[in-house]
Design brief:
By secondary structure, the protein is an alpha/beta fold. The protein folds into two domains: 49 residues, no CATH class; 261 residues, Type I PLP-dependent aspartate aminotransferase-like (Major domain) (Aspartate Aminotransferase, domain 2, 3-Layer(aba) Sandwich), CATH 3.40.640. It has ten helices and ten strands. Helix 8 links the parallel strand 7 and strand 8. Helix 3 runs antiparallel to helix 10.
């Protein structure tokens, strides 16, 4: 694309940002943000006309590239006919997005709960697992990142908070990391075996009857892109089956093609019970996330009310962007 530099407009945008925008993960007075004017494919431009190669795909999510015409058109077409609708109503975009997503995973996963992003997808996956198992502890890696929410439902005053007041019931364990092994392993096979033995011990000490879910990133992302050794995820699956624990795969960062498979866990012989996805599903064009749900867990809520919901769950523009993105990827 052709881009004409406009430093004066860049200064205006910068001044607006510094005057009125409160940034995440930052000391506000120390910020000097890059001001972005445009993007296309693998590149973006600032207002001075500098062109940058987007090596990080922004927050590891612009899987299909910036401004892909098929995704842009899908959003535009949806906006022209139905820009928003409350989540209790069925709409074509949401149904088509869910059908496409479930078509990428095992035959026993046929439902999708849509959220606004990865963090609230994790929250709702945990909620589903706890209610399904009637067990409330959640185990996860020390080296992991699953989002930045959790206090909102605890602050809620009405009865919707009652099934969700379990934020203290979290236990961490060491996942496999041969480079700095916590288990003095000298090979990937040994690291996998010892990490699984460690997890089994944690399960026993915490009490299998208290653990509702094991939540793991299929490939650990923010903590260093840690690929699990052969056999590890299969071993976690076996422990979950042995003890009646829900296995949640957090694919927020690794999903939708980043490892060569649609989901990272598909590189191994393992099937989670719940799959968390988010920004990769539509390359971040519209905020979205969700949980892919096994038929067994979905059946728990056939007659029991699921105590969770979001105003923008399955928003038509977000759903249309997923349809456009997956269709273009295929």
């Amino acid at each position: 694309m052709e881009f004409t530099a406009d430093p004066q407009e860049g200064k205006r945008v910068y001044d607006l940002d510094r005057a009125h925008v409160f940034h995440s993960w930052s000391a506000q007075g120390a910020l000097n943000p890059m001001v972005i004017a445009a993007a296309e494919g693998s590149y973006f431009w600032d207002y001075d006309g500098n062109k940058f190669l987007d090596f990080s795909s922004q927050l590891v999510n612009v899987n299909i590239g910036h401004q892909h015409p098929k995704v842009i058109k899908a959003i535009q077409d949806q906006a022209a006919k139905l820009s928003t609708i409350a989540p209790q109503h069925a709409n074509a975009a949401r149904g088509e997005a869910a059908q496409l997503i479930t078509g990428l995973v095992a035959d026993n996963m046929n439902k999708v709960f849509f959220t606004n992003g990865g963090a609230d997808a994790v929250e709702n996956a945990i909620r589903m697992a706890r209610i399904h198992t009637n067990k409330h502890k959640v185990l996860s890696f020390y080296r992991s990142y699953h989002g930045n929410t959790g206090a909102a439902i605890a602050a809620t005053g009405d009865p919707r908070r009652w099934p969700n007041e379990y934020s203290a019931q979290h236990v961490h364990f060491f996942g496999p990391y041969l480079y700095r092994s916590a288990f003095w392993a000298t090979s990937e096979a040994q690291e996998s075996e010892r990490a699984l033995q460690h997890l089994e011990q944690v399960i026993q000490f915490e009490g299998p009857g208290t653990i509702g879910a094991i939540l793991i990133e299929s490939v650990v992302g923010t903590a260093g892109v840690l690929v699990p050794p052969a056999g590890y995820l299969e071993g976690v699956r076996a422990l979950c089956d042995k003890h009646g624990i829900v296995m949640i795969a957090d694919e927020t960062m690794s999903g939708f093609g980043r490892t060569g498979a649609w989901f990272a866990f598909q590189n191994w012989d393992v099937k989670p019970d719940l799959i968390v996805f988010a920004k990769g599903s539509n390359s971040g064009y519209v905020p979205v996330g969700g949980v892919i749900i096994s038929d067994a867990i979905a059946a728990t809520f056939d007659t029991r009310v699921f105590p969770g919901g979001l105003t923008y769950s399955g928003h038509p523009l977000a759903a249309a962007s997923i349809v456009g993105s997956i269709t273009a990827m295929k």
